[in-house]
């Protein structure tokens, strides 16, 4: 199956470009996070998204009320049930996001070289002379000559609905700006981004805390996407907040890097967070265009070496209104995969785009093609060198399992895990074949009732490249004699066969714990 892997360093045969792409059960190793909203709310569309390859659903609380998102989530549960495809839930906080409020929803047209006042009074009516904003500290934060960007919420960059402003003067709490380009602002909510300026608002607002402790707790969210993470302390505070909320102590925190401040403290944030989301839309405004590719490559490399999932946003903006991405976008998705991203996050494309299912399917196909030319050999050597010696016990087992699987051309790696850590470490070495992580539930009690853990761990691997989780039967314990483990193994092999990744005479690498020892074994399947 994997002898067809080409490397970009080798001359690529034209034939491989002209060959049609083959469909497979696991559409791509790279995961796709879809933002659910008005255009992707029905059970039917969400089912289509799951079948097309979405494995994490993102609920963005910058808009919509908890009731609206709850309806969408109930539809997601129904879709998961009918398609039998697991899906994780990510709650995206609002954070210190500056917004222009247009209560009347009338279109506002701004003309180049005209003046507009940003006023911290949300009761005011928005017009071409005055834009009401939700933050009264802007006048203290900006000075003459600073750049301010105002665009449609989840703007795609191609519309004429975004405008660049330059601060002309500051009057008390009002900021007077010169309009740099003509634009029409349509809709009720616009994002306001002040370029390279510190905004003195908490990363986790009271509104965010309320949503997490009600909606988040009730729905046992798998991931918290922490918008505008600027320091490691932001992540620590969020974790402390989650630790007091029952089951949410298991929720993973993904730090969303959106501005220069977050980039400056990237290393310390990466140490604290469970994963990173590179918000390229906002970073693209904060950084000069020629630097955008550099931060992506540097940040993804650091995430890969730390073995933490990295997610890239804003890839196929034009698919919000079109069935096909632009050439630049198609290349961009492929390059994100080659740079080492774990997942691609779709925002406007699925939230208010006309083609949510087709977008997921197209992105999945591009990811699958670029994975074929990913230089695993070079990546493996680089990672081993970075980790250095002596390796930890688990790291050594994980890297050996991947090396063995590549040497014997195994069609799949099966990993038994209860915390999910072993499977994530195997994925860190980017094997060319899928990793089926068999999550073994653990029994726990609070003296009043029994409960099983494992569901969180299984869903949280849905954002890691190449990991495909399945929940084992709790009657078969993880660390036991070989006999019972084999029955769990049989279930995993049957799952692989049913999904078409394992055929007779294939070799499979199995990574499991037997007693106190970790074992990597290679099995060859009979007919």
From TrEMBL:
Its cofactor is K(+). Coiled coil: none annotated. InterPro entries: Pyr_Knase, Pyrv/PenolPyrv_kinase-like_dom, Pyrv_kinase-like_dom_sf, Pyrv_Knase-like_insert_dom_sf, Pyrv_Knase_brl, Pyrv_Knase_C, Pyrv_Knase_C_sf, Pyrv_Knase_insert_dom_sf. It catalyses: pyruvate + ATP = phosphoenolpyruvate + ADP + H(+). Pathway: Carbohydrate degradation; glycolysis; pyruvate from D-glyceraldehyde 3-phosphate: step 5/5. It is an enzyme of class 2 (transferase). Pfam families: PK (PF00224), PK_C (PF02887). This is Pyruvate kinase. It comes from Ficus carica (Common fig).
């Amino acid at each position: 199956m994997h002898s067809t892997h080409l490397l970009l360093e080798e001359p690529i045969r034209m034939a491989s470009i002209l060959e049609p792409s083959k469909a497979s059960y696991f559409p791509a190793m790279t995961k796709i996070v879809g933002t659910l909203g008005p255009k992707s709310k029905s059970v039917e569309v969400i089912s289509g998204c799951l079948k097309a390859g979405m494995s994490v659903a993102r609920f963005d609380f910058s808009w919509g009320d908890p009731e609206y998102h709850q309806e969408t989530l109930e539809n997601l549960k129904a879709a998961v049930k009918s398609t039998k495809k697991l899906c994780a839930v990510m709650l995206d906080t609002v954070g210190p996001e500056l917004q222009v409020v247009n209560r009347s929803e009338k279109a506002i047209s701004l003309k180049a070289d005209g003046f507009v006042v940003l006023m911290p009074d949300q009761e005011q009516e928005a017009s071409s002379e005055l834009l009401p904003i939700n933050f009264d500290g802007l006048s203290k934060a900006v000075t003459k000559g600073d750049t301010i960007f105002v665009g449609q919420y989840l703007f795609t960059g191609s519309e004429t609905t975004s405008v660049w402003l330059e601060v002309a003067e500051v009057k008390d709490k009002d900021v007077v700006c010169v309009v740099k380009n003509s634009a029409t602002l349509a809709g009720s909510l616009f994002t306001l981004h002040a370029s390279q300026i510190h905004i003195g608002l908490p990363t986790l607002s009271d509104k965010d805390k309320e949503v997490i402790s009600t909606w988040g707790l009730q729905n046992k969210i798998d991931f918290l996407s922490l918008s505008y993470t600027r320091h490691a302390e932001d992540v620590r505070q969020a974790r402390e907040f989650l630790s007091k909320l029952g089951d949410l102590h298991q929720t993973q925190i993904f730090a969303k890097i959106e501005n220069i401040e977050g980039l400056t403290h990237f290393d310390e944030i990466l140490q604290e967070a469970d994963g990173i989301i590179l918000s390229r839309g906002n970073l693209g405004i904060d950084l000069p265009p020629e630097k955008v590719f550099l931060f992506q490559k540097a940040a993804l490399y650091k995430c890969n070496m730390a073995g933490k999932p990295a997610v890239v946003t804003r890839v196929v903006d034009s698919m919000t209104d079109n069935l096909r991405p632009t050439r630049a976008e198609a290349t961009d998705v492929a390059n994100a995969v080659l740079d080492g991203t774990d997942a691609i996050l779709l925002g406007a494309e699925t939230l208010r785009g006309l083609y949510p299912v087709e977008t997921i399917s197209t992105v999945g196909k591009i990811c699958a093609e670029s994975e074929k030319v990913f230089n695993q050999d070079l990546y493996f050597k680089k990672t081993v060198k970075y980790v250095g010696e002596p390796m930890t016990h688990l790291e050594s087992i994980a890297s050996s399992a991947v090396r063995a699987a590549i040497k014997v051309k195994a069609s799949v790696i099966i990993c038994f895990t209860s915390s999910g850590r072993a499977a994530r470490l195997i994925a860190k070495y980017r094997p060319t074949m899928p990793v089926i992580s068999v999550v073994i539930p653990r029994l726990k009690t609070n003296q009043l009732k029994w409960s099983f853990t494992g569901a969180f761990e299984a869903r949280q691997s849905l954002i890691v490249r190449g990991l495909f989780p399945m929940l084992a039967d709790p009657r078969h314990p993880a660390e036991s004699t070989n006999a019972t483990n084999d029955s769990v193994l049989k279930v995993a092999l049957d799952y692989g066969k049913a999904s078409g990744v394992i055929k007779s005479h294939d070799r499979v690498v199995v990574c499991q714990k037997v007693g106190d020892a970790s074992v990597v074994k290679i099995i060859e399947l009979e007919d």
